From TrEMBL:
Listed InterPro entries: PGBD (IPR029526)
Organism: Dinoponera quadriceps (South American ant)
Basic and acidic residues bias (residue ranges): 54-64
UniProt protein name: PiggyBac transposable element-derived protein 4-like isoform X2
Classification via Pfam families: DDE_Tnp_1_7
Domain PiggyBac transposable element-derived protein: 153-392
Annotated region (Disordered), positions in chain: 54-75
Length: 412
């Protein structure tokens, strides 16, 4: 870490606001699998253990009328919370990932002693733990003021070398089927530098709109854009576009993920986001949408948004800068929402991060699990996500009062 100026320069380059964030109620129709909250834990989430003194349970069993959790233990017993969840996974590869995740989380569980009656309708100021992580740039660039050097932190030369290698592999697998294209221009392996030029032209196409991509190489004086033919020939651009590939098709089988085609790129970007910069204590968990109207079995639809069709992405970002710390693309593979939350937050557990999320993600079961892994959460919550009856009654009373006040205003 050179200086505060260096950090500010780099974070400004990386900072990017999240777009197309779905609202709380609209998320109900995004996916059926993620909306299933089956709480199989023994008790509900407690009020913070440092702020409450354990009390003995009542000897009688009339606690159903009080604000108890779903599974109370016997009186005078010390309750140790352990997460027990059912996970439905369709592919073997995803099963291995989630088994590894559960094993890694179980090693870090902090037993929490709690009382099932520690619910309160009164607000209070909690005593929060100190942040145990180190935030800032973990891999500083040689020249912090140079945009190309900063971009290399995320898009390194090894990424373009992978593009070059996989494109050559794909060409060797499909060359017999692409005779017409091969006759127009003899194939030669694409170098990493040539791939950078190729991507630069694609980015420039977004700044200069044309009817179709071939018009960028048009010789018509009214349509010509000299920089394109001067940088790369049209046939070479088409050739690279045709064989641009990210993964070896020969390794694909029935157990492969639905993201197999782009899996190496996703893993590369996630690894870079996790290692280049370490976020501050406050994090935000929400989702974004990549616009797409093509044919995808896991394409989502949200009628309440401007971008109605697209790919749903769970995004964990730093609250201050919007820097993306981790992300996961929804693929409709029967993965529970609690499992998704834990997998996205996994690199940042056990550091007393504060995670802010809306009522689509919040539940008492996930709050309990995160607390066991030294992570605080904050946000609104739906009544059917494990709230005790006393808080449900409180919410109903507030709604009735708001309804009466609204009726009085309408009469006036």
């Amino acid at each position: 870490m050179d200086s505060d100026k260096t950090i500010n320069n780099i974070t400004e380059i990386f900072a990017d606001s999240l777009s197309d964030i779905s609202s709380d109620d609209e998320n109900m129709n995004i996916c059926e699998d993620d909306d299933d909250f089956q709480d199989t834990t023994e008790v509900m989430i407690p009020v913070k253990k440092r702020e409450r003194v354990l009390r003995k349970m009542d000897s009688d069993r009339d606690s159903e009328n009080n604000c108890n959790s779903d599974g109370d233990e016997s009186a005078d017993s010390e309750i140790v919370i352990r997460a027990r969840r059912k996970v439905l996974i369709s592919s073997d590869s995803e099963s291995e990932i989630n088994d590894h995740l559960r094993n890694s989380l179980s090693d870090r569980v902090i037993p929490v002693n709690l009382d099932s009656n520690n619910w309160s309708t009164e607000d209070f100021q909690p005593s929060l733990e100190d942040f145990e992580g180190d935030w800032g740039i973990a891999v500083p660039p040689p020249k912090p003021d140079s945009i190309p050097e900063v971009v290399k932190l995320i898009l390194g030369d090894d990424l373009f070398e992978m593009f070059s290698y996989q494109s050559s592999v794909y060409y060797s697998q499909t060359s017999k089927k692409q005779r017409k294209l091969i006759k127009s221009l003899k194939w030669s392996p694409v170098s990493p530098t040539e791939f950078k030029t190729f991507l630069a032209l694609i980015i420039l196409m977004g700044r200069t709109q044309k009817g179709n991509w071939k018009e960028y190489w048009s010789t018509d004086p009214l349509l010509t854009v000299p920089v394109f033919p001067q940088t790369m020939s049209r046939n070479r651009f088409e050739q690279i576009w045709k064989f641009w590939h990210f993964n070896d098709n020969s390794k694909m089988d029935q157990s492969s993920s639905r993201l197999f085609k782009i899996q190496p790129v996703l893993e590369y970007l996630v690894q870079k986001f996790n290692t280049v910069y370490k976020p501050k204590q406050q994090l935000s968990l929400d989702e974004g949408v990549i616009p797409w109207r093509g044919r995808f079995v896991f394409r989502t639809y949200n009628r309440g948004k401007i971008v109605k069709y697209g790919l749903l992405v769970r995004i964990l970002s730093e609250s201050d800068t919007g820097y993306i710390c981790n992300f996961e693309i929804y693929t409709a593979e029967k993965k529970k929402l609690n499992e998704t939350i834990l997998s996205v937050l996994d690199p940042y557990l056990d550091l007393w991060h504060h995670v802010y999320q809306d009522n689509y993600y919040n539940s008492t079961s996930i709050a309990k699990t995160l607390l066991e892994h030294k992570t605080r959460m904050c946000g609104t919550i739906r009544q059917n996500r494990g709230l005790p009856q006393c808080l449900k009654d409180e919410a109903c009373g507030l709604k009735k009062e708001q309804g009466r006040n609204l009726g009085i205003l309408e009469k006036k």
